[in-house]
Fold this sequence. Notes:
Blueprint: H1 2-15, E1 22-29, H2 30-34, E2 39-45, E3 50-59, E4 76-89, E5 97-112, E6 128-145, E7 150-168, E8 176-199, H3 204-212, E9 274-276, E10 296-299, E11 310-313, E12 316-319, H4 320-336, E13 340-351, H5 357-379, E14 386-393, H6 395-407, H7 415-425, H8 431-440, H9 445-452, E15 460-470
Helix pairs in contact: 1-3, 4-5, 6-7, 7-8
Amino acid sequence: MARLTLTLLILAAWGTSASAQGIFAIRNNILWDATGTPNLGLEFTVSDHFTLGLNGAFKPWPRFLAWDNDTSNPARWRYLTLAPELRYYTKQAARPGLFFGANFVYSHFNIGAFDTKIGPFADLQVHRFQGDFYGGTLFVGYGWGLGKHFRLEIAAGGGAGYRQSTEYECARCGAEIGESNGLTFIPKLGLNLVWNIEKRNRVRRELQHTISDIAPAEILPIGDVPSIRDTAAHVIPVQEPKAEPAPQPEPIATPAPQPAPEPEKPRIERHPLLRPISEYQAYTPDRVLSREEGSVSVWFPFAKSDLLLSVNVRGVERDNSKGLDTIVQVIRDAMADESIRPAKVQVVGFASIDGPSWSNSNVAIHRARAVKSHIVWKTGLASELIEVVNGGEAWSELLDELAQYQAAGESQLTQEEYDRVMQVAHSSDDLEVREWRLQQISGGTVYQKLLKTLFADQRSAVCVKVYYEDNNN
């Protein structure tokens, strides 16, 4: 049974990896809609800054709009376009902000009888062109968040390619005039409404680590489990009463010896992380947990809640295993100390401030839950004794760390830039507005400096305290 249970846990851990963490987005180009062209775009994050996508548009009806039933209109405009796409986001992949991109474009078209000349088609007013286009475009764009799952973006650019088409005598007749091939320049313009669908892999790697760390001694074989028969009551046989002996003279009473006092059990030395429940404090955003005595932090990769044994933060490998082992050992010591019992473990999850606040709040709570999962697996502590808190964006932690660097003269910011950051940080309760104002300081250079340095320190979860109750009370 133990082996079967372990096997099921391993399968469950792998099962959680079925969907990779990241963002899958669906978008629609409103400008294409305005021309009566149904279109759809798909986008997948492939790294912290890059996405891959595919855009498609298909206009099956000949006139400008699908509902234009003017049969006297000789115009013909039908096409199918497919455009694989690569994007680079300066902040976070598939999130609001500035991005750059490139398309490969394929289009099959049938167009003619338009009053306005388009591109290289010299006789578009009276002739019809049908063929294929192969090319590419470069573009730049910017996106804005519209809530929890939506964003609006604009994109503009241009490109070139090669067309292979046949020119016909008129818009509707089929008399072929000749070939019309050559280089073509094309514009790119988009006003996209985007729906982000986030996929998160919460604690898959943590389950794999904890399962692999289970010692054989922690799994009891079936033979070691007491049988029900072993606990059955024994029947005591009835014995014949014995004759009472003759009374003996009572001996002279002597005082009973006093029992020797039992030696006190050695008290386990307690880590600063372990504190009495009377000192419990609910988390508030103004607290700087990294400065509180005994608190233990573990770090996470960008935009992820996978609990790893080490994480690269600003080019330095941070060893999470030491912090996790400390938390586990403190809890085990508290469980082994007969004079106390664990009452509450407080874990707060954080995210850096870059990106939408709703998304950061989501990843922050998942980070706290990953640490909770580790504690339950390693210590067997009841799940309800672990308080998971969503710390959201770690503004207080960021500002405190920045203040330390500024005081030590190690900050990359000038005093004027530092004062401006502090002013912006207290200028609004709206986190999106606050981040936007931070991005405007010195044309965005201050934000980029913080993004490359201190932001990585805030992607963490903090075990604030392990609170205990006294068994003697």
